Amino acid sequence: MSLTIRAVTRQDYDQWYQLFDGYNAFYGRSGPTALAPEITRMTWQRFFDAYEPVHALVADSDGELLGLTHYLYHRSTTAIEPSCYLQDLFTAEGARGKGVASALIYGVYERAKAAGASRVYWQTHETNRTAQSLYDKVAERSGFIVYRKLF
Questions:
Q1: Rounded to whole angstroms, how far apart are CA atoms 111 and 121?
Q2: Are strands 119-121 and 83-91 parallel, antiparallel or unpaired?
Q3: Which of 59, 63, 110, 111 is the most exposed place for a label (fewest CB within 10 A)?
Q4: How far is CA 21 from the centre of its chain?
Q5: Cα separation of 130 and 133, whole Å?
Q6: In 10 A of CB 70, how many CB atoms?
Q7: How do beta strands 4-7 and 54-61 pair?
Q8: Consecutive sets of 10 residues in the chain, 151 residues long: mean pLDDT of each?
């Protein structure tokens, strides 16, 4: 399988949407709990706005998108350099176990280094054991626990 990790383009929308929809469904955001269409539209628009810190990479195999990752840069109170948060990572079901997810992660690593970031970090659900087995190979667990308050 030939695989290219590249920035998403406007022509990728239909395939990107299918992958993003699959990612959201994996985390229970489908049907009555689906993201509002305006959130998906705004997410897509942000990838092409030079003033936005949000970026997207796709895994392309001869014109077929097999996976996506979204990441963003932000400031930190513990470093001068920006931090890179890998927010979303998803591989099409038929492409799982073939190195697509790790290629996307390494693609983010390359771009974060080029941007001068001091770290890349992400989170996953505690039940996502399959992803954790990959993450344990490409990064280290920080030991931090995530808390949140929704409004």
A1: 13
A2: parallel
A3: 63
A4: 13
A5: 5
A6: 22
A7: antiparallel
A8: 95 98 93 94 97 97 97 96 97 95 98 97 93 96 91 94
